[in-house]
Automatic annotation (TrEMBL), chains A, B, C, D, E, F, G, H:
Biological process per Gene Ontology, one example term: 'de novo' IMP biosynthetic process
One MF term in the entry's GO annotations: hydrolase activity
Protein name according to UniProt: Nickel pincer cofactor biosynthesis protein LarB
PANTHER family: PHOSPHORIBOSYLAMINOIMIDAZOLE CARBOXYLASE-RELATED (PTHR43064), SLL1489 PROTEIN (PTHR43064:SF1)
Domain of life: Bacteria
Organism: Parvibacter caecicola
C-alpha cells in the first residue's frame, strides 16, 4: 500500500465510510488477488476511487464469476461487468442471484443500482434510435456508479429542433454524454449550447464509408466546438465512467 | 457530331442563341482541337451544356493560354481556369488581357463575369473563416457559369444561431453549397433546414486526425440528413459546376 | 413553427394542396411526436418538402410500425422505410396491410406508389448485374417520391457500346443516377455525355482491393468529369432523394 | 437571446459579476458581430461560459485583430488566439500592445494571465522533451482560462520511476492532462494512479509508423484504463479547455 | 546440400548429436520432400537450426498429417503445427496418436514436449485475461522448442503494481515476450525494467478503434523504450520462435 | 459493328476460322443480347479476342445460365464463369450438362477444356499450400483460354532452394504467374530469375497485419525487380487472362 | 554462372550476337561488380534479357556514374537511369558526354536511343495533360529498350470521343500502356476496345481524396475489364519495361 | 534504487567493473537528473544495461548538450544521440569536442567508439544503395554499443546471387539486421538462410504505393519465414540496440 492509498484510506475512515477495523483489514490485504488467469486489482477503489470494472468479452462465465467473488471477498460486492453476452450472463446470475443484467447494453451488475451520490445530473443525448444500445450502456453505467441520469434520445442534427426542445434538460447537466453514429455531428452542436464538459461517443451505426464508426470518431475528434473529448467507438461505458468521475468531483 | 449534339445545336438555333451560319460552322468543325499536348474538347458545350473548364495544376502558362485560345477560336471565348498559381496567371493575363484572376481561390476567367441566367440563387454557406478560399472558389465559379450567388460565411455549428440568423437567405436558395472542414457537420444541419438540394464540400482545414480533409469528407458522406451529395475535398469548383447545372434546369 | 415553415404552409394552402383546416391543425401540432425511443420529425415535410424517411437498420419491427403510424396520424400516411430486413417487413405489413415491400432493395412503402409529379425523368444507369440491388433501391425510392424513372442496366465501361446504345434515354434525363462498384468509372463517362447533373453511387460490389466499395467511392470523388456529386457506398436511397429534390425544382 | 442565456445573465447579475446596466446592454446586443469574413460569437460566454477562442491558422493578422477588437467592444477583452504564427503575432501585438505571445506553443492572449479561479489544480504531465510545445499549449491555455497549473515533464513510461516520483503532485490534481507521442502509453499508466479524470493528448512526435500521431491517438482511444477521454492530435488547447470546464464545476 | 549446411552437419557429428551414418543419410537426401501440394523443407533444421513448423490454416487434416509424416521419415519426428482447428487436430491425432493438442492456442505437437535445453528462461507476460490464447501460443511454442518458460499473466499497465510484483521473475529472464491488445503499452513499460531483449506481440483484443489489433501493433512499433522488436498481430508463435533462437545462442 | 471489329472478322474468314456465312451472321447480329438484367456483350470476342467471361458473384444460377445460353446462341458456346458458389454451379450444370466445375477455385466452364493454342507455356508458381485455390483459379483459367500450363507449387522464399530446383521449368515459361500471400515476396525473386513477363497475384492468405491481402498487394506493387505487373487480391483469373493474351501474341 | 545463363549465352553466340571470345569473357567474369556501395548485377542481361536499370533516387551523381561505367566495362554500355534529378544528370553527363537526359521524365540514357527491334508497336495513351511526365517516362523507356512507340495523349474518359478518334492507332498496338490519375478509368475503357494486353499506370495527379494516386491505383486494380495489370503509382518505367518484354516475345 | 538495480550494482562491483566507492556514489544518487525540460534517466544503465540514448529530433542543441553533460556527471560519459541534424551536431561538438558525428545517419557519439565486447558479430545486410543511411544508422549504433559489425550492402532479392555470394559472412552472424525498403522481401530470404535471429528494418525508400515505408513494414510483419521481428520504419537504431542486447547475452 503506497502513500496515496494510505491517505485515501484514512480519509474514508475520517468520513465514517469505513470503520477502523475495515481499514486495518485493507492495509494488511495483498495488492491484488491472484486467480491464476487474472490478477484482480483489489486496491483500485482506493487508488482510483472506483472498484475494478470487469471487461466481459473474451472471458468465460466462470472467470467472470470468480473475479466478482474475489472482489466481494475484499469488501467490494458491487461489481460492474461490461460487454457480457446473454448466455454468459445467465450463468453468472446463477452463481450470483442478486445480479442484474441489461441485454441491449450487455451490462451486468452484481448488486442493485446504488442511490445516486454524484453532485449533479449526467445527461445522455443520442442522435438516433439505432444508437440506443450504446446510449443505454452509458446511462446504466452512470447509474451503476451512483449518478442521476437524464436521457434525451433521437435528437439528431437533421431535425435540430428536436434537440433544442430539450434545451432545459441540457442546461441542468453537470456533464453531457453525446452519442452518435454516421457523421457524428451531435457533440459539436451540443457543445455550442452548454457550459459544461461534453463527452462524445461515436457509434458503429452506419454503413459503407462510416467504416465501422471511424467516420463518426474522426468527426468528433475534429470538432470545431470547444469542450469536447472523445472515447472509443461504441464505448458508452468509458464515457460514463469519466462522466461519473467528473460528477463526483 | 452525334445525334444528341445535332439536336442541341438545332435547339440553340431555334432559340436564336446561334445563327444558322455559326451552327453550320460547328457542324463542320473537328471533334476536338489537337494541340499535341492536349485534345481540347471543343464540343463539350454542345454535349454537356458548358464550355470545357481548364484544370490549371500541372499545366504551364503557355499550355493554358493555348487551350483558351483554341476554345476562343471555336467560338467559346469565356473560359474558366481552376487551380492556377498566381505567377502562371500573370503570364496568361499578358496574353489574354481581358482575363480576370482571383488569387485566393486561384481562379482565372478569360472574360468578365456574365449576367446571371440561372433560374434562382445559389447560396454558398461556409463554416469558418479558414474555409473562405474554397467557398470563394465555389461562389466565383457559380457566378462565372451564370448564377446569382448569396454568401453566408462563418456560420459553423458551434454557434448555430449564426446559421439560423440567415434562415431567410437559405430559404430562397434553389441550391445550397455547404463548405466545411474539421468535423464537416454543417451540411447535415443545413439539409435539415431547407427543401432544396445541398452540395457538400469538405475542406482540408484542420490538423491531426482531420487527415487532410478526409474526416470532413467521411462525415458528409455519412450524413444522417437526406438531400446531400458530396464532392472531393477542397473542390469548390465541382460543387458550383453541379449547382449551376441544377440552377439552369 | 418557424417563419419558413409558416411560409411554406401558407404556400400549400394558396396552391390548394392543403385546406385551411388542415393547415390550422398543423400550426397547432407539436414539433415532433415523442415515442420515447424516437422523436418523429412530423414537420420535416413542411421544412424540407418530404416526409421523414425511416432508416430500418437497427430498429425493431414494432418501432418501425409505431413511427409510420405516428406520421400517419399527422397526415403523412405514405412513409418510406429503407434497409428493412425481410422478416421485419413481414411484421410491419401485418400491422400496415397496404404496405409494399421490395426484398432485393429492402425498401418498404406504407402505401402504393404515387403518381409522378416531378418535372422530368430520372435515369438510373448501372454498371453490372451485381449492382442491381442498389440500382433498384435508387429507382424505387425515386418512384416512391413521385418521379418517372428510366432504367439502363448492365452498361459498364468494359463494353461501352452498351452504354452508347442508350444515349437516347440518357439524353432525356433531367437527372442521372449512375451506380457502379469495382473501379466506379461509369459516372465519369456518363457525365461526359449529358448536360444534366449526375449523382454517383458507389457500390460494395467487388473483392480484395475494392475495400468494400471504397475504391469505387474514391474514383467517383476524383472524377475528371464535371457535373458529378457522390453519395455513400450502396446509398441508392440518398441519390434518389437528392435526384427527386432536383427533379421537383 | 434564448431562455438559457437569459438565466445565466441573471445569475451573473445576482452574483454581482455584472451590473444591471451591463446586463441590459447584453440583452439588446445582436447575437453576433458580423465582420463580413467572420461572425464573431459574442454570446458564447453566456451560452458556454467562456469567451470565444480564435483559431489562428488560416486567418490573416488583420482578421485576428479585428475579431479580438469586436469581442473587446462587447465587453470581452481577454481573448485567446491559438496556432498563431510568430510573424502574425507580431502584427497583432502592434495593434493590441497588451497582448502576450508564447512562440513555442503559438498562443496569444490579448491581456495578461488572469488570477486562477478554478477549484483545484490541473496537472499537465508529458512523456518526452519533444512533446513540450503541445504540453505548453495545454498549460498556458489552462492558465489563460483561470486555472492553477502544475507541470510534470519528461516522465515517459520507459523510465517509469520518473513518473512515480511525482505521485504527490498527481495526487493533488483535480484533472490531469497527459500528453504523449510515439506509442501514447502515458495516459493509461496515469489513469491507473489517480482518482480524477484524465484528458489524453496524442502528439505528432515520432516517425514512420507513428503516422503523424495516429498511433498515439489510437492507443489512447483503446486504453485499458478507465477514466480517460481523448482530444485531437497536438490539441493541447482542446484538452485544457475541457479541463478548465471541469475544474470550474 | 550447400557449404553452410555441410558445416553444420559436421558440427553435429562432432558434438555427438548425430552418428556418421545418420549424417551420411542426410547428405544423400533430397533437398525437400515433394508431396505435390507441398514441398516439405526437410533441410531447414540444418539450415536454420529448427525443424520446419507447419502453418495449419488453409490446410486439410490429411495434408497436415502427410507433412508431419514426411518430416518424420527424414528423422525429424517432433513437428509443431500452428493455427490448427480442433476438428482437424482430432483427425491428425488419429493418424499420429502421440500428438498433443492445446485447443485455446490451437497448437499441435506430434510428440511430447522436449526437455528444455535453452540457456535461460523465457518470460511470457500478458496484459489481460483476454490475451491468454495468444500468450499461451507463445508459451507452449517456446516449450516445444526446448525452453523453460515463466508466465506472468494479467499484468496490464492500468494496475501497474501487478506487473511490479513480478519484478523478480522478469529479472531472471533471458528474453521477455510481452503480449498485449488494446493500447499495447505493456512492452514499453517492461522494456524499461529489464536488461534483456523484449519481443512484443500485439493482439486483436479490443474493439472499435483497435482496428483488429492495428492500434496495439502501431503502439509497439513506436515504443519510446529501446530493446523492443515486434511481430505480427496475434503471432505468439513468431515471438516464441525468435525468443527460442535467442535463448539457444 | 465498327471498323476494327469488321477487320478482325475478315481476318478470321481469311484464316479459315470462320465461314463466310458465319461471318455474315455476325455482321447482322445486334451489338449485345439484352436480357433485361444483363446486356451480354456478344461482340467482345471480335473486339477483344476472347468471349465474355461471367462474374458469378452476385448473380443467381438462373441469370448465369441465361447468359451462357445467350452467348451459345451467338456461336460462343464455351463460356467461363468465375467465383461461382458450389450450389449455384450444380444448378447451372443441370441446365448445361456438359459444364465442368472446379470447387476449390469456384470456376465453371460450359464445355470441356480446349486444346492449347498459345505459343508457349504459362508457369504458375505459388508460395504456399494455402495459396492453392488462387493458383488453381489462374491455372484452370489459363487452360480454359487455350494455354499449356506448368505448376510449381509451395515454393515460397523462406526455403528458396525449393524455387531454384524448378529453375528449368521457369526457364521455359513464356509468361509466369506468381501467386503469394503474407509478405508477397515471391514475384520479386522470380522476376530476377527469368527473362519473361511476371504477373503477380497477391492472395488474402495471412492474418493480422496482412490486412486481407493488402500487405502482399503493396509488396508486389513496390517490387525492386523489373518486369512485374499486378492484379487484384485473389484475382487468379485476371492474371491468367492477361497471361493468355500475352501467350497468344 | 548457372545453367540457364549458360544456355542463353550459347544462344547468343549461335545467333551471332556475341563472338565466342566475348562469350568466354563473360563466363569468366564475376557474378557482379562490387563497388562497395553497390553490387552491380552485370549478369542480369543474360539472366533477364535486359541490362540492369539504375534507380537514380537516393544515389549521388558519382555513384550513378560509377555504376554506369562498371556496366560499360562489362560490355553493357547502354544504361538507363530513372528518377534522376536534373542537377545530378548534368554531373553524370560531364563524365559520360554521350548521355541523353529528358528533364520532364527525369530519365537518362548513357547512349543514343537504339533502333527498335520489338515485334510490334507499344501505344502509350494518357488521360490528361498533367499526366504527361509519367506517360513520357513510359514512352522513352520503351524506346530506350528497343520498341516503336505511338503516343495518344489527353484522351480522358470525360470526352471519350477523343479516345475513339484514335481507335486505329490502338488497333495496331501489340501492348497498350494506359496512364491516368484522378479516377483512373482510362484503362477500363481501353481494355474494352483492344485485343492485346493493357498495362495500367496510375498517376499522382489529383488532390484531396485522390490520396496521392491511391484512388487511381485502386480503380485500376478493380477494373471490370479483363486484360489489365497494374504497376505502382507514377511508375511509367515499370509498365514500359514489362511492355518491352512482351513486345520482344 | 530498487532491489534489481542493487543486485546489478553489486554484480558490477564483484566483477571489478565498479569500485566500491563508485558503487556507493550511485546508491546515494537521485533516480534521475531533473533539468526542468528533461528528467535524465541516470539509472537506466543499471536497470537496462545501457546508458540512456538521446532522441535528437525536437530537441535544441543546448538541450542535447545539457543531457549529455548530466549523464557524464553521473559517470556515463559515452552517450549516443540519434536523429541529430548537422547544424545541431556542430553546436554540440563545440561544447563536447570529443564527440563524433556521422552526417548520413545523423548519429553523434560523445566519445570515440568503444572496443567490441559482444560475443559475436552483428551482420547488417541491406537491399539497395538508397537504404544506406538507415543501414549505417544500424551499423554505427551497434559499434557504439560495443559490437563487431559486418556489412553486406546492395544485396536485394532481384539479383539474389549477390546475397548468396555473402553466405559465408551471414553464416558467422550471431544476429542479422536486414534493412530494406520497397517490397521489403530481404528479411524473409535471409531468415531462410541462417540459424540466428533476424531483426528487420523497413525503410521509407520507394514512392507511390510504398506509402512512406508502410508497404515494407507490412511485408516484414507478414513474413512467411520464422525467426524475424520488426522495428519501426527507418529505425536502424532500434534494431541495432536490440541486436546488441542479444549479442551481449
Amino acid at each position: 500500500m503506497n502513500k496515496q492509498e494510505m491517505k485515501r484510506l484514512l480519509a474514508l475512515v475520517a468520513a465514517g465510510e469505513l470503520s477502523p477495523e475495515e481499514a486495518a483489514a485493507q492495509v494488511d490485504a495483498p495488492d491484488f488477488a491472484d486467480l491464476g488467469f487474472a490478477r484482480v486489482d483489489t486496491r483500485r477503489q482506493l487508488r482510483c476511487g472506483v472498484t475494478e470494472v470487469v471487461y466481459g468479452e473474451g472471458k468465460t462465465a466462470a472467470q467472470v464469476t470468480a473475479i466478482c467473488q474475489a472482489l466481494a471477498e475484499e469488501g467490494q460486492p458491487r461489481v460492474l461487468v461490461t460487454r457480457l453476452a446473454a448466455e454468459k450472463a445467465r450463468a453468472v446470475q446463477e452463481a450470483l442471484p442478486q445480479a442484474l443484467y441489461w441485454p441491449d447494453s450487455r451490462l451486468l451488475l452484481t448488486q442493485p443500482l446504488p442511490q445516486p451520490d454524484g453532485k449533479g445530473a449526467i445527461v445522455v443525448v443520442c442522435a438516433g434510435t439505432s444508437d440506443l444500445p450504446v446510449a443505454e450502456e452509458a446511462a446504466i453505467t452512470a447509474e451503476a456508479l451512483g449518478n442521476k441520469v437524464e436521457r434525451v434520445y433521437d435528437a439528431g442534427v437533421a431535425g435540430i429542433h428536436r434537440l433544442f426542445s430539450s434545451a432545459d434538460v441540457l442546461a441542468q447537466a453537470r456533464v453531457v454524454i453525446a452519442v452518435a453514429g454516421m457523421e457524428g455531428a451531435l457533440p459539436s452542436v451540443v457543445a455550442g449550447m452548454v457550459p459544461c464538459p461534453v463527452l462524445a461517443v461515436p457509434t458503429s451505426v452506419g454503413y459503407g464509408a462510416s467504416l465501422g464508426g471511424v467516420a463518426a470518431l474522426l468527426a468528433m475528434l475534429n470538432s470545431c466546438a470547444s469542450g469536447i473529448s472523445v472515447v472509443n467507438i461504441d464505448n458508452g461505458f468509458g464515457a460514463a465512467f469519466q462522466a461519473s468521475l467528473i460528477n463526483h468531483l
